[in-house]
Amino acid sequence: METGPTSIMHLPDDCLYFIFQRLNCASDRESFGLTCRRWLHIQNSSRHSLQFPYSFNIVDISSLSQTSTKIDDFHLCRLLIRFSQLQSLSLSGCMELPDSGLTQLQHYGSKLQNLSLDCCYGITDTGLSLVAAGCPSLTVISLYRCNVSDVGIETLAKSCLALKHVNLCYCSLISDHGIRALSQNCLQIQSIKISYCRNVSGVGFKGCPQTLSYLEAESCKLEPEGIMGIVSGGGLEYLNISSLSGFIYGDGLAAIGSGFAMRLRVLNLRLCRTIGDESIVAIAKGCPLLQEWNLALCHEVRVSGWESIGSNCYNLQRLHVNRCRNLCDRGLQALRDGCKRLQILYISGCSRISSTAMELFKCLRGDVEIKEEEVMSIAPK
Question: How far is residue 343's CA from residue 369's CA, in Å, rounded to a whole number?
Answer without folding.
Answer: 6
